[in-house]
Design a protein that fits this description.
50% of the residues lie in helices and 13% in strands. The protein is an alpha/beta fold and 297 residues long. It has a 6-stranded parallel β-sheet with strand order 3-2-1-4-5-6, with helices on both faces. It has a 3-stranded mixed β-sheet with strand order 7-8-9. It is globular, with a radius of gyration of 20 Å. It starts with 9 loop residues before the first strand and ends in a 16-residue tail after the last helix. The model has no long low-confidence stretch (mean pLDDT 97).
């Protein structure tokens, strides 16, 4: 086993979906020995052109790796994948857990880490498809000081900045911060979607709305991005899929309930995403919340 003070030379990426593929590509291009696994192998195979080794099983990917990075759909998927890899995991292996798993999900992952004597780094990332592809994610991280040098090459390759918010991954300081940030992101998305939906219903030119708030305190770049996607019907491929947004919204509501905090807007937002998914917009960008305003989707 490598010294805890030495930077990682090898990394296993478990999950190469919208986020994981860009992260793995940047890891391979940075010079790290990068092994990748995805449940649907075809989604991982293009990464071979960037120098990554595509594996058939999670165990094959993690064997001998200094760092294991999980970036999967949810906490259950991350746990199931790590269980498939468990026979190849060495005690002391650093596990950078980037999946948005929620508080209950992270509790289960932390229990697995303790059972297998892994060093858990709670490390969700902030950003969408384009920042993942350009290596400009913000990494929110919580983990022991002695192993931070190990994961530094990994986080430097996938992100523009790493913010350390705690020294114990199992305490979920980074996950808690990510849930707070995501609650704001999802609410702003719904706000943009509903404003355009109301404009349509009232016969208001949406550009008139955008012109009226331009360059003032009510304007912001994120609003411009989401309204542009809707006005241009540029929802595929998604930067953040509606199906994933619904999952995250329900994790946020659950976290609030666990803390004794009522999140009425987040709960209503989860329902909007559910309706949009039922209308066939699950694999589109989450700006598709717009369609939940209309019975005909």
């Amino acid at each position: 086993m490598m010294s805890k003070n030495l930077p990682a030379r090898s990394v296993a990426v478990l999950g190469t979906g919208i986020m994981g593929s860009g992260m793995a590509r940047n890891l391979a291009r940075s010079g790290l020995d990068t092994r990748v696994w995805n449940r649907t192998r075809a989604k991982a195979e293009p990464l071979a052109a960037d120098g990554a080794r595509v594996t058939d099983t999670p165990a094959e990917a993690v064997a001998g790796a200094d760092v294991v990075l999980t970036i999967l759909y949810d906490g259950q998927a991350a746990l199931e994948t790590m269980r498939q890899a468990q026979d190849a995991l060495r005690p002391g292996t650093v596990w950078a857990q980037a999946t948005t798993a929620g508080l209950d999900g992270l509790d289960a992952l932390a229990a697995f880490a303790r059972e297998k004597e892994l060093v858990l780094i709670d490390s969700p990332v902030l950003g969408t498809k384009q920042p993942a592809e350009s290596g400009q994610l913000l990494v929110l991280a919580s983990g022991p000081v002695p192993v931070r040098a190990v994961v530094r090459p990994v986080f430097d390759a996938i992100g523009s900045r790493t913010v350390w918010v705690g020294e114990h991954g199992e305490e979920a300081a980074a996950t808690r911060l990510k849930l707070v940030i995501n609650s704001w992101v999802l609410n702003v998305t719904h706000g943009a979607a509903e404003a355009l939906a109301l404009a349509k219903g009232l016969g208001v030119d949406p550009q008139g709305f955008l012109d009226a708030i331009a360059d003032g305190p009510l304007d912001n770049g994120y609003l411009r991005v989401k309204t542009s996607q809707l006005l241009e019907r540029d929802l595929e491929p998604p930067s953040f899929a509606t199906r994933t947004a619904e999952k995250d919204a329900r994790l946020i509501v659950a976290a609030g309930e666990r803390a004794g905090v009522r999140l009425d807007v987040a709960a209503a937002g989860a329902e909007r995403f559910r309706r949009a998914i039922a209308q066939g917009h699950g694999d589109e960008d989450m700006a598709a919340s717009y369609f939940a305003s209309f019975d005909d989707g």
